[in-house]
Amino acid sequence: MASKSAAPKPFWNPSKPVALALTVVVPCYNERANVAPMVAALEKTLAGLAWEVVFVDDNSPDGTSAEAKRIAQTDPRVRCIRRVGRRGLSSAVIEGALSSAAEHIAVIDGDMQHDETRLPLMLQAVQGGADVAVGSRHVEGGDSSGLSSPLRVKLSEAGIRVAQMVTHTSISDPMSGFFLLRRELFDSLAARLTGQGFKILLDLILASPSVLNIVEVPYKFRPRLAGESKLDVLVLTQFAGLLLDKALRGTVPLRFISFALVGVIGVLVNLIVLQLASTAGADFGKAQTIGTVVAMVVNFQLNNQLTYRAQRLKGGRAWRGLALFMIVCGLGAIANIGIATTLYAENGHSLLSGAAGAAVGVVWNYAVSSTLVWRVR
Ligand code: GDD
Ligand code: MN
Predict the structure, then answer these.
(1) Which one of 39, 60, 65, 113 would you pick to mutate in the ligand 1 pocket, going by the greatest count of ligand atoms within 8 A of its CB?
(2) What CATH architecture does domain 22-231 belong to?
(3) Domain layout of the chain by residue ranges
(4) What distance in angstroms lies between residue 258's CA and the mean position of ligand 2's atoms?
(5) DSSP states of 194-227 as a string?
């Protein structure tokens, strides 16, 4: 018997639903203490706007995700993406932004260093026709006094100049991690982003096939509220790599360049240790063996920290990786010497033969290290 029941009357107000205006993407790593203050600050400055915030946490040991989800339980404007087994500021921002269905996306650091009260102005700039509104420390009214040391200030200035040259833009703070744009624009550029390292804004500017109309909104870079900065020399090296990659237009894999450079450092280490061990009285064979082993350990360390930073091996897996790396490089050396001596026997040209052997050795070491030692997917 079919009963014709009327649709139940909603007990909420069924008037026109509000379109989501803004998703604020907050990348965070070990920012537990800053989550609640961030939500409170956004609530204050965005009152009356249909906004949401998404915290993108890379499984921080301090429980940042748990804190964000605790707040999210009673506040539907708060979301959390918890990524496991991955690290990286840029890729975190990309994932947060891609999870948005709002009309606009803003990106802001999770440590309260960026001034969230600028967001309405930035939104206004984009609504007024700008492609991207960038919070800038370097236009009049801005201030970077929150940078932690004079060295950071110098590094920051040098990086900005290089970035301006590569991007052919004159924006004064291309390294800013504080910006706002239409979601549609982000979506259209997403597939072209490298997602490497720290500088997502720069990545976006470089990814755009047309010159973006960027408006800068000054703000004062504040000292972080709690916790510590994750930006270190290695991250800056990655930034240099991002620029190099753009300059080479992706023809040579960055990872290979890094691996080869580490190899060059290894040769220098080998020679220095050989020299030291010889002066300390070791015979040549012994001195060279010590030099080689030290160079391999140094190379493994550097590759683990730099070349394969995203797949970094820790604890027991690092020791296992080191052993494997030494075997791989040992085989690479055998291939190197074998090829060089064969070629030398044929053409008698020592430099060319040696170079050919070394090239094969490096490519072998790189290919096998990537797949076996660090298991790059
Ligand atoms: N999910 C995730 N994964 N978040 C990360 C990671 C990561 O691997 N590394 C850093 N973060 C988060 C931090 O928790 C913080 O919220 C934000 O990214 C910025 O990191 P900080 O370590 O605080 O960087 P900073 O203060 O040295 O530099 C920041 O400010 C500059 C000035 O605007 C960065 O955002 C720079 O990009 C920016 O130029
Ligand atoms: Mn910070």
Answers:
(1) 113
(2) Alpha-Beta Complex (3.90)
(3) 22-231, 254-373
(4) 27
(5) ---SS-HHHHHHHH-SS---EEEEE-B-PPPSSS
